């Protein structure tokens, strides 16, 4: 039944007008590129949101255990304070990631965020009750917050593991590419200084040739599968990068390292070699 509910939520188009307006607002607030890159986790090579949520989740869960034990009231209250304080950066990273998701992902993400906001309000209420001597209410509200946060976490898991938000969607392509050298063709046929796409073992590969040097990477953008072959190449030499036409993730052509998000992970690259004028590629 839970699966059916979530699957209906993915298709619940009534959320789209709110979702689209919120998306515009989040993108306007997080306009500076550096701020977005920090919150996406591009500098870390991993989405930042799942890292930051460990703190509030751990604090709230531990507070729940301590609340069930005698004489641990103060420790539980301290942990709830830590959880409430650390929820803000986790939420900021989550909203910025959410703003570059597809519509069906944003529907689930919106309810995930709403559940977390309700849980946070319950924890704030719990703190207010604890600080005014109503310990019973404090415990009750904290357990209610934990239950709602659990529902929010379920939706967050669905968003990541079922809908692929935050996953590097280019990684499965890399696994399908040959580990041994596979011939691509005559290097003279590749245009220079222009991205070109070739299909190898059913996987689209982006090639970029400068003279006799060729770089190769999986063409499907790791963020949401955008066509890097249609992207613009910026910079030059070892720092030349391709910019994804969908949301602007920027990957260095030589090693696939993400220079700007929303992609947090790097784009898989391939080794290349030229022998007797024939270009071959292989996975690293
Ligand atoms: S698909 Fe989103 S940046 Fe490429």
Which SSEs are present, and which pair or pack?
Blueprint: H1 2-10, H2 16-29, H3 33-40, H4 49-52, H5 54-67, H6 73-98, H7 103-131, H8 135-162, H9 171-176, E1 182-186, E2 196-200, E3 203-210, E4 213-218, E5 232-234, E6 241-243, E7 250-252, E8 258-260, E9 269-275, E10 278-282
Helix pairs in contact: 3-6, 5-6, 5-8, 6-7, 7-8
How would you describe what is shown here?
With 284 residues, the protein is an alpha+beta fold. The protein folds into two domains: 2-162; 171-282, Rieske Iron-sulfur Protein (3-layer Sandwich), CATH 2.102.10. It is 49% helix and 17% strand. The protein is built from nine helices and ten strands. The protein has helices at residues 2-10, 16-29, 33-40, 49-52, 54-67, 73-98, 103-131, 135-162, 171-176, and strands at 182-186, 196-200, 203-210, 213-218, 232-234, 241-243, 250-252, 258-260, 269-275, 278-282. The protein has a six-stranded antiparallel β-sheet. Strands 5-6-7-8 form a four-stranded antiparallel β-sheet. Strand 9 and strand 10 (278-282) form a beta hairpin. Helix 3 (33-40) packs across helix 6 (73-98). The longest helix is centred in the middle third of the chain and has 29 residues, at 103-131. The protein is elongated and about 80 Å long. The two termini are 44 Å apart. The model has no long low-confidence stretch (mean pLDDT 94). Bound molecules: FE2/S2 (inorganic) cluster (FES). Residues 221, 223-226, 244, 246-249, 262-263 line the site of FE2/S2 (inorganic) cluster (FES).
């Amino acid at each position: 039944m839970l699966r059916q509910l979530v699957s209906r939520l993915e298709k619940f188009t009534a959320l789209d007008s709110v979702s689209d307006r919120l998306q515009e607002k989040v993108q306007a607030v997080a306009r500076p590129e550096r701020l977005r890159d920090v919150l996406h986790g591009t500098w870390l090579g991993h989405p930042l949101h799942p890292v930051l949520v460990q703190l509030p989740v751990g604090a709230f869960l531990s507070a729940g255990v301590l609340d069930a034990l005698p004489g641990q009231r103060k420790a539980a209250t301290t942990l709830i304070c830590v959880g409430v304080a650390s929820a803000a950066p986790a939420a900021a990273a989550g909203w910025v990631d959410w703003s570059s998701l597809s519509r069906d992902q944003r529907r689930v993400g919106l309810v995930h965020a709403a559940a977390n906001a309700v849980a946070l309000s319950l924890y704030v209420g719990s703190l207010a009750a604890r600080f005014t001597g109503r310990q019973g209410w404090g415990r009750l509200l904290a357990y209610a917050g934990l239950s709602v946060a659990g529902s929010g976490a379920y939706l967050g898991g669905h968003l990541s593991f079922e809908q692929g938000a935050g996953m590097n969607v280019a990684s499965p392509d890399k696994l399908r590419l040959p580990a041994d050298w596979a011939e691509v063709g005559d290097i003279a046929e590749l245009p220079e200084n222009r991205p070109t796409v070739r299909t190898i073992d059913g996987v689209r590969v982006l090639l970029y040739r400068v003279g006799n040097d060729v770089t190769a990477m999986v063409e499907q953008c790791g963020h949401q599968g955008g066509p890097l072959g249609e992207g613009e190449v910026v910079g030059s030499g070892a720092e030349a990068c391709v910019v994804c036409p969908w949301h602007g993730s920027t990957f260095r052509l030589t090693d696939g390292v993400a220079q700007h998000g929303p992609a947090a992970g790097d784009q898989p690259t391939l080794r290349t070699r030229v022998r007797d004028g024939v270009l071959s590629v292989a996975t690293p």
